[in-house]
Amino acid sequence: MTDHLKAINTNLSYFTLRKIIGWRGVLLPFTTWIVSGTFEKSISAHYYSVSGVILTSVIAILGVFLISYRRHQKNTK
After folding, report:
1. CA-to-CA distance for 66 and 1, rounded, in angstroms?
2. Cβ-count burial 51-69 (b if 16+ within 10 Å, e if not)
3. Other CB atoms closer than 10 Å to residue 45's CB: what's the count?
4. What is the rounded end-to-end Cα distance, in angstroms, of the chain?
């Protein structure tokens, strides 16, 4: 590993980022169901309900996490 890569200090490990992404994805349908108070036929139907703001916010946050996530680099020695 180079000195540049050793100097990078991240507050959240990649394992923690993966856990956050997973839990947000699992809890999204339940959160939108509880906030809107109605059970819709699909998750996208909540976009037009009271919980539409939560739905779009969580999807945007998941997108930012996935963009910032770096995959594991293989050693090519």
Report:
1. 24
2. beebbeebeeeeeeeeeee
3. 15
4. 11
pTM comes to 0.61
Both tokens of residue 1? 């590993």
Domain boundaries, the chain: 11-68
The position carrying tokens 């000195």 is 3
| Residue 40 near residue 46, CB atoms below 8 Å | yes
CB contact at 8 A, 36 and 55? no
* pLDDT tens digit sequence for 31-51: 888 888 888 888 888 888 888
